[in-house]
Amino acid sequence: MSPVDNVLSHQGINFCRYVDDIVLFAESEIEARSLILTLANTLDKQQKLLIQRHKTQLMDRDKFRKFCLEMIEDRPIDDLERDLVLIIQKHSHGNPYRIVWISELSDDELSKFRPDVIEKIVTDYLEKPEPDYIRLRWFIRRLAQIGHPAGINIFLREFSRLLPALSEICRYFLAVSQVTDLDWENIGQDLLTFFENKIIKSNEYYQLSILSLFASQQKFDNLPSIIKLYQNASPYLRREIIICAAKHNATDWIRELKETFPTMDPWNRRAFIYASSIFPAEERKFFLKNIQGNDLLEELIIKWIKSE
Fold first, then answer.
1. Nearest C-alpha neighbor of 276 from the set 254, 259, 296, 304
2. Which of 71, 102, 126 lies at the terminal end of a domain, its last residue?
3. Does the chain have fewer CB atoms within 10 Å around its N or its C terminus?
4. Are residues 64 and 212 in the same domain?
5. 271 and 154 in one domain?
6. Which of 189, 161, 187 is nearest to 174 (CA)?
7. Helices 133-146 & 166-179 angle (0-180, nearest 10)
């Protein structure tokens, strides 16, 4: 998002961003609406991203101040959520980045993390006239912190309605896959079916978020289905597919991309150079010898591969 920050700053726009949440400050409602259009245009040109309309709000000073004060308060939707959060906070000592191992929980604590409990909490959030996605995203991050699989079914079933929390959902699946043995191949297959969803199909960010799971964790498997996406994929998606193929040691398929290497964009070039690390030693040596790094990142990747 740094290019977006730079463009907004160069235009003298007063804003504040945290990850993908952006607050724009204006002197009037007319100026605010104009800034939203400017932001939408910048997101499209820089990252091919779209503004989430249901998350976009116009607030005056007093409403914004009240909103900010509410955001720093702990507001569990019910006692079930409060109990789960207290357990996680107890074992993490209030550190939202500390991993809490399931083995650390007592039998009584562990019994509270049931699929029906997580389902009720998530459903209660979603069935509100105006779902509090910010708070829901916060709750999902806490679940990812402990990596308990109780949320998998509800997250898959309500995937379309949970798109505003997609990055948190993906983080949760990745966290659970690292600590729990489940049928991840079938779960991966379920995730890939969402590529047929009209909203996901029209949004490159959503597609990247899902594919990043397969590139990060081999357990999700389904490589043939992912490779089929390559031909019609955007450059950004192709990068994730190349990385995914490398993680699955798909040497022969990656080799077929060699002839397109000279015409690849910078990020795909870097991904392919990284993927060349799985080539047989002599082939890898010959390939790296005949390319020149176009920038520091390429040179560093080549240096890393040669040192392996």
1. 254
2. 71
3. C
4. no
5. yes
6. 187
7. 10
Q: How many helices and strands in the chain, by DSSP H and E? A: 18, 2
Same domain, 142 and 203: yes
Radius of gyration of the chain (CA): 22
Domain CATH number, residue 93: 1.25.10.10
**Cα–Cα distance measured from residue 270 to residue 273, given in angstroms and rounded to the nearest whole number:** 5
User: Tokens 């379920």 sit at which residue?
Assistant: 190
What's the helix, strand, coil split of the chain in %, to 5?
Answer: 70, 5, 25
pLDDT at 71: 67
Give me the domain span that covers residue 38: 2-71
The answer to whether residues 30 and 124 belong to one domain is no
The count of other CB atoms within 10 Å of the CB of residue 123 is 13
Same domain, 167 and 289: yes
Looking at this protein, which amino acid is placed at residue 214? F
Residue range 120-177, pLDDT digits in tens: 999 999 999 888 888 899 999 999 999 999 999 999 999 999 999 999 999 999 999 9
Phi-psi region of 10 (alpha: psi -120 to 50; beta: other; left: phi over 0): alpha
In terms of Cα–Cα distance, which of 295, 170, 287 is closest to 240? 170
pTM, entire model:
0.74
Same domain for 292 and 256: yes
CB-side neighbour CA atoms (13 Å) of 302: 16
CA-closest candidate to residue 231, choices 245, 241, 221: 241
Is there a single domain that holds both residue 191 and residue 298?
yes
Residues 98 and 20 in one domain: no
Question: Mapping DSSP to helix (H, G, I), strand (E, B) and coil, where does residue 11 land?
Answer: coil
Q: How many domains does the chain have?
A: 2
